[in-house]
Each structure stands twice: as C-alpha cells, then as structure tokens.
Design a protein that fits this description.
Elements lengths: L6 H17 L9 H17 L18 H13 L10 H14 L2 H12 L5 E4 L15 E5 L2 E12 L6 E7 L10 E7 L5 E6 L8 E12 L3 E2 L5 H13 L4 H19 L7 H23 L7 H24 L8 H9 L9 H12 L6
Parallel strand pairs: 1-4
Antiparallel strand pairs: 2-3, 3-7, 4-5, 5-8, 6-7
Helix pairs in contact: 1-3, 3-7, 4-5, 4-6, 7-8, 7-9, 8-9, 9-10, 9-11
Bound molecules: flavin-adenine dinucleotide.
Length: about 375
C-alpha cells in the first residue's frame, strides 16, 4: 500500500487547510438539545456553501465524488483544525441515511431528501435497536401493517441517538406478518413529527441526553416512504451498516491522534505527572490505528469484515486515552471539564455500533475462520 500523496493531492490539502482555518467556529459545540442542533446545522450549511459537505457523495447528488485518498486528506485536515466532532446530529444523515438513499432509494426520495441533508436543513436518526434486539437486530418486533396506501406502525425503539431533535428516521420494521429473523423487514423513512410518535430521552452517566426511547402508536407512514422494496429491508439495512462501519468512522478514528497530542500538552502542564511512557505508547497506537484505517479504505479487493478490527481497536484505544486523561488530571478530573465529559462518554464506545464482544465474534468467525459459537 503506497501512502504517498501526489502533488495534486497536496494542493488539495492546502486548499482544505486554508478553508478550515478561515471557517472553523471558535466555540465548542453544545452537548445536547436544540442548541446542539442549531450549532451542527449551521456548521454543515457553512461547509456546504464552501463545497465541503458530503464530499464523497456522487456529484449528481450534490457531492464532489472524491476518491478515498482525498477523503483521508480532508479528515486529516479537519481534525487537525479542531473542527467540530463529526459525531454530531448530522452524522446519521451525512454518513449513512444519505448514502443509503443514494444506493437504494428511488429518484423522488433522493430529490426530496438529499439536498435538504447537504444544506443543513434536516436531521436524521436511526431506529434499528429495540429492547431485546440490539446485537441480535434480526429479532426486532416493531410491526407495520399495510392500510390502503400507508403503513401503520406499532412498537418501540431504544437508544435512538438524536431522536429528540431529528426530522426523519431510518426505521426498520417488520412488514410481513409472522415473518422470522431477516425476512419480512422493511426500511422506511419515518417523519419524526408524525402523530403517534413519543420520544422519551434517556440521560447517560455524563449527564446528557443524546439518545431516547421512541414509541410508535398507530403511526401512519406513506408506502412511498419504503426504501428499496417492501420486505427487502434487511438488504437495505446491511447497506446502511456497511456505510456506518466503513467510511463514516474515518474522521472519528483520525480524531484520536489529535486527542493524544492534546493529552501530551495537558501532561506537560501538570507538574509531577510521569506519563511519558504511556503517552508515547498511545501515540504509537494511534499511528497504528491510522494505518489500519487506511488499509481498510484502500485494500483491493475490499474486505467487509476489516471494519470490525478497526472499530474494536478504535473503541478500546479511545477508552485508554480518556482513562489516561483522568490519571493526568487527578482530582481536577472530578470537576466538570470536556475531558471528564469525554471520559464518561467513552464508556459507550465498546457498545455503540456493535459491542466489543460482537466485533470479536466477527473477527474470530469471518476473518480467522474459527468455528461459530
Ligand atoms: C451511545 C450509543 C448510541 C446508540 N445509538 C443508536 C442509534 O442511533 N440507533 C440504534 O438503532 N441503536 C443505537 N444504539 C444501540 C446499539 O446499537 C446497541 O446498544 C448495541 O447494538 C448492543 O445492543 P444491546 O444494547 O441491545 O445489547 P445486547 O445485544 O443485549 O448485549 C448485552 C451484552 O451481551 C453481549 N452479547 C450479546 N450477544 C452476544 C453474542 N452473540 N456473543 C457474545 N456476547 C454477546 C453484548 O456484547 C453485551 O455485552 C446506540 C448505543 C449506544 C451505546
């Protein structure tokens, strides 16, 4: 794998760096609620005006159709400039709902939703997990029954990030009565303002409500909102998860190396902190993660399950970095700071997007070829 960038790539880097230097907001993003939505959408709108929103999306849908090496350069510069975290309320729309519509939606769905996403005019959330159907997603039981030209949805989702501030949801429901597992599911666009939807935010141990329970009580959704074919939702959902597990996370993974550099500065400012060896190890580990991320992106033919290796390494490394931040801060870590907040949030890294145990199962069975449990 050759990681040398061409002179044209380096010119692209300088353009990105300059734009970011001129445009990255000075303020930190609010953690939750309407203020976080306003901040994230304003930032996305600014990126879009500058031609930097959805840069990997095809040009026909408002993107720039940039290849992976340009994507990598953009994210390297993005995290270096300390731009707002990519994991905000625009993440689902930009990184998996939009790409899923591009891959599986019809032209009406694309024409309506894609411009709204890129211009910072709609927030999406993901309604896949249910109580009892997280790792085992195929066991989900929220139902949708056809009534005329509408679906009528009843059931419950849980852990739906940004449900309280979302306009639309990628909703996975069981549309075929009596169907089992992967059969009989449909992926539908749900308007979060539809009558019959109740959103009940869940407060996490960092004290903020990013996710929520969502209840559906006779919620009517037009059949035209089904993406892909009716009862073909598992295929569409796997497309969504493919995006979620691959390109979507590049920014997050690269962000860790910036975190380590910030930690080194933090340690230098703390008299008596003897962390040099651990910090050097972390710097090496984040460099290794970056190399794994690039290999996943550039390897041909692409292998589906490499994403689990990177995802697992990212999650465990993120937790280690934030643990060391607490060790450096000592008692100061007990007061409210962004390090404390991020330390508490990092616990969820080995759960969200597939738990560490599930990633290990995938690595064992699909990469190492070990027998199924
Ligand atoms: C911060 C955060 C944001 C999230 N956002 C969303 C969202 O926006 N939309 C959405 O749909 N979901 C979301 N989720 C839910 C997430 O996808 C699930 O939490 C995850 O898939 C695990 O499912 P579960 O919580 O039901 O745990 P379970 O599947 O019940 O697992 C419980 C425990 O059993 C273990 N386990 C389960 N099965 C196996 C097995 N076969 N082998 C070994 N161990 C096993 C797990 O590793 C875990 O330790 C979010 C979660 C978090 C933490």
């Amino acid at each position: 794998m050759d990681l040398t960038f061409s002179p044209a790539d380096e010119a692209f880097r300088l353009t990105a760096r300059k734009w970011l230097a001129d445009n990255v907001p000075a303020d930190r993003a609010p953690y939750e609620g309407q203020a976080s939505r306003d901040f994230a959408l304003a930032w996305l709108a600014r990126c879009n005006e500058g031609g930097w929103a959805g840069i990997a999306w095809p040009e026909a849908y408002g993107g720039r159709g940039l290849p992976p090496e340009r994507l990598v350069i953009w994210y390297e510069e993005y995290v270096r400039s300390r731009a707002p975290s990519v994991l905000d309320c625009t993440f689902v729309a930009l990184n998996h709902a939009g790409p899923t519509l591009i891959a599986c939606g019809n032209e009406e769905q694309k024409a309506f939703h894609l411009p709204r996403i890129l211009s910072g005019n709609s927030v999406w959330c993901q309604g896949f997990s249910e109580p009892g159907s997280g790792s085992d997603l195929a066991s989900l039981s929220t139902t949708a029954v056809i009534d005329g030209d509408e679906l009528v949805v009843n059931g419950q989702k849980i852990w739906t990030s940004y449900a309280d501030i979302a306009d639309y949801q990628e909703l996975l429901v069981r549309t075929e009565k009596g169907s089992k597992r992967h059969q009989g599911l449909s992926w539908v666009i749900c308007d979060m303002k539809a009558p019959g939807i109740t959103v009940r935010p869940i407060r996490n141990m960092a004290g903020v409500s990013h996710f929520a329970e969502v209840f559906y009580d006779d919620v009517r959704i037009p059949l035209t909102n089904v993406v892909g074919a009716l009862n073909d939702g598992w295929r569409v959902a796997m497309t969504t998860l493919g995006f979620e597990r691959k390109t979507a996370a590049i920014g997050l993974q690269l962000e860790l190396s910036v975190r380590v550099e910030d930690l080194i500065l933090l340690a230098q400012a703390q008299p008596g902190s003897a962390m040099a060896e651990r910090l050097a190890e972390l710097r090496a580990e984040t460099a290794a993660l970056r190399a794994m991320t690039y290999r996943t992106l550039f390897r041909q033919p692409a292998t589906t399950f490499d994403g689990s290796l990177v995802r697992l390494r990212f999650a465990e490394l993120s937790q280690a970095i934030h643990q060391i931040a607490m060790d450096i801060l000592g008692p100061d870590g007990l007061v409210d700071s962004h390090w404390t907040h991020d330390y508490l949030e990092a616990y969820s890294e080995t759960i969200a997007g597939g738990t560490a145990e599930i990633q290990r199962n995938i690595i064992a069975e699909r990469i190492l070829g070990l027998p199924r449990e």
